[in-house]
Structures
1.
Amino acid sequence: MSLPEGLKRIDENRLEVPKGYKPGMRTNGIIYVDTVLEKDLESGSVEQVANVATLPGIVGASMAMPDIHTGYGFPIGGVAAFDIKEGVISPGGVGYDINCGVRLLRSNLKKETLAPRLKELADALYNEIPSGVGSKGKIRLGPDEEGKLLLTGARWAVEKGLGDVSDLEKIESGGCLDGADTSIISQRAYERGRAQQGTLGAGNHFLEVQYVDEIYDEKTANALGLFKDQITVMIHTGSRGFGHQVCTDFLEVMSRAVQKYNIELPDRELACAPFNSPEAQDYFAAMKAAANYAWGNRQCLMHWTREVFMSVFGMPPAELGMTLIYDVAHNIAKVEEHIVNGKKRKLVVHRKGSTRAFPPGHPELPAVYRNLGQPVLIPGDMGRASFVLIGTEKAMSETFGSTCHGAGRVMSRHQAIRQAKGRAIWREMEDKGIIVRAAGRETLAEEMSEAYKDISNVVDVVHNAGISRKVARLRPMGVIKG
Amino acid sequence: MDFETIDISGDAGIKAYGKSREEAFVNAGFGMYSLITDIGNINERQEIDIEVKSDSIEGLLVSFLNELIFRFDTYNFIGSRIEISDLSIQPPFFIKAKIFGEEFDVERHERRLLVKAATYHNIRVEKTGDKWEIEVIFDI
């Protein structure tokens, strides 16, 4: 694909979508891609960066990270900040899977200790972690219980005995956003969330046993408790049907709000409302409840993962050392303070397929990471790698403290299935030393490596641009998919 | 069952056709179900009634499909036959339908995609000539 017409290269890591690219743009767009990833840039996603720039009250540029691809309304990989007085909030800038995110656990195990037990471990994890279309979770939430979860997030799970209080400080926002309001959650969202807490879901969600194969920054890796050939576990999932229903409900509310507040939109999926309006405040409170649902979900799955490791390796928790490194949200909107043109401003920052990447010293970081910066967790496809990065000052000044979130697809599901025809993807993976367990018949073909951008290229762009810094690379060994 | 799937990067969509708008809506429902499983293996053991309102025809289609998604994602109900008894494509836009099907069973039914929602992205509900055509993309 050639570069869509009208774009200008700013430097080796950034393209500009000039203000005149589309009528109605209030600001320019900036896309973080180098000349390698530029080739995968879809014109539809560039259009979406430009569309976001037309929204009222946008502050700074409409941005996209190198894992950009076409989404609904906002592009995936999009970052946009709005003034809390004159700006808007948009469910499309968060996405259907509210607080889809990633958490990473460390361990004291080394690759060679685990390798002989890998198949057994993968089977045990697959049996214990509910995954896939139509799977049934182990938890049934009564209305009171679900309400508590929506208000307290990961803490709800810890209070149920799933995990440890010390886990909470290593979760973005402590695993709970204050200000969730259960009274504005629809009956349908309640019902849909009743049996889905503690489930992985399907699609690109996964639970992965990995090992650290390369360390780029010894000092930071050490401070995070990471070392070469160490076993880690990564969990990628979100708020499941609960979050999807909240998004669905509020897209309807917002499409009425657009008319009420006379907002002109180039795309219906950008439906939004002035941040101070009742519609926006209701969405924000419901989104927080969904974010809390997701943090509870990842907490449950992590707890069961630890239990499986304990039973497979017959080791007590202290010996396994499976502590949480961090948990990030990559589909979320947050009110944050940022310096814009030398002035401190409160903004509602939308990250849709983008990870927060706060620098050392930021007051929102937990004490353990205050001097280090925020750990950034970037999952790749099931055959290549995932990365740990750290937040930087440059992210704060350039991207509202944001970086990329993953690889981003380059192939449609059907293209992938066609390419995989006649091949046994599970065997190709096994030849590489990776054991995969998936619920869906075509999941492996759809999720094969070639269907995604090479995560290393994506991470190189954010590293070279200075909006986060590489710390370690993780290679998959055992993958559980839906 | 006149529908086809649309191949897009990341997600999936369907095109559905019908001699009447009712038939096109029914085929859109089948198209959506076929993303989740092979509907040829779904038996008629239960029936549910649904009723959906909206403020536009596109909104009605999205709400109708989201209702089917909700019933599946919440109660595991998946349909193999859809009967529309009432469909208004002028204000007030509404649809009334009966869906015949059964509870999804991972032992017996193929697991395809997890459909999160129907979207307004490039949505189309149109009459061309004497045929109704629907195009809709789902978040997967």
2.
Amino acid sequence: MIESFFQYEFLQNAAITGILIGIVAPLLGVFIVVRRLSLIADALSHITLTGIAASLLLEKRVSPVSEWNPIYMGMVFSVIGAILIERLRKVYKHYEELAIPIILSGGIGVGVILISLADGFNTDLFSYLFGSVTAVSRDSMWTVLMITTLVVLIVILFYKELFVLSFDEEHASISGVNGRWIHLLFIVMVALVIASSMQVVGILLVSALMTLPVASALRIAKSFKQTIGLSIAFGETSVLVGLFSSYHLSVPPGGTIVVTAILILIMSILYKKVRAQQWIKGEA
Amino acid sequence: MKERTIVKLENVSFKYDREWVVKDVNLEIEKGQFLGLVGPNGSGKSTLIKLMLGLVKPVEGSVQLFGKPLKQYDDWQEIGFVSQKANSFNSGFPATVIEVVKTGLVSRIGAFKFFNKKHKEKAMDALKIVGMEDYAYSNIGELSGGQQQRVFIARALVSDPGLLILDEPTVGVDAKHVTEFYELLARLNKEQGITLLMVTHDIGTITDHATHVVCMNKTVHFHGASEEYKEFSDEDMNQLYGHPVQQLTHNHDHHEVNHYD
């Protein structure tokens, strides 16, 4: 893969985009998981699909000659979905989680109609569902680089606000933290990162890259900063090993990335078990 | 308004939906007091605290903090708060004790600025006051209820507040540590000069430690020095609570238990 990397632009695009999302997806994933919002990533990835479908349909109907990059429309839909979830959470104050299946099924429902209107399922769509090492354009790579930079900067700048809001909302409120704005900013970032990640990991598996590395890190880390560091390390390992094996095995990277992340998760659970047993023996 | 008045509530009323939870409360808390706020379940104690902290807005009346109307008040580091819910946080949360204590500085540091070494030292100092400095790098979820409670007090103390508000802080703390806990509060009150407001069920113990007591059931029924409160007759108490009350901790000498034969 190394020689081919310098030879083929598409491999460079996929690898660089992969490295970027390997940082930024688990970074936001930590906050998503500790705030028990894991399913929001799923809902947003499904509504991103609606955006992709809308883009494919518009391309076909409006300008069949030029090629559109569906990632932008995906981002727009994802951000709108994020804002809708927040609205719905207010409507159903006592059933906040209801917002997630509403948006998730709504996204798929509209998406299926749009896909059929755009003449059904083709290879393009398959690569959006499960990821691809060949489909990432240079253009998308730059977009993902911009979003990664923006998200990392915002997280550093608002780290203490995001942390206090995740740990204790009431305390955040009496600390003068404007929870509503920070939360909106956060969920818009999640929407953008999901749309960025989908080309490499695929829509159906994008939430895995946000949650599985965090699930592994939680078994081992003591502090919040450690959790972030380990999550990124695990996410990055999953992406790199996944992309490499995807290229050599000719299977979609979504599958290989998620399987790698699962293997890391199993190892971290076993690690904790072994450590606990050693500790018991040491005590005895 | 006297200069020493830290909190002033004037004719404050509040309702969720239709029923009044807090009605016509007038209350002043003065600097240096250790005030116990007692009352039966659902008497509006926690709501009254939320009103003082601006977490809910009064339907009628006004709240003043340190001489300023609540709307204009923005000096939140002056007020430390240990919530009843502090104990029911997500105990699997991956944070160390020091990381949690540092969040008490968020309002002092302000937006667009970062935690630095000085903040860490402040957090360590606060942990020393509550005797938890050895646990600075432990995971918060691994501590006992009483230890966690101390950490949350350290978080409230780290911004050097003039007023510390505690909502049922002894819930979930085992009896053995409750005495220690009151000693800690007395020290904060006397040595650090911090004004304390503590909501509690434990009527007997609070009168032994607090300088003043407020007894409320939607509205304030008694406000005065603890000594006077001890004179407050059982009959008055029963009327207030709507059923006979045994002041268990108060009357350790003659412990009577009613049997319904």
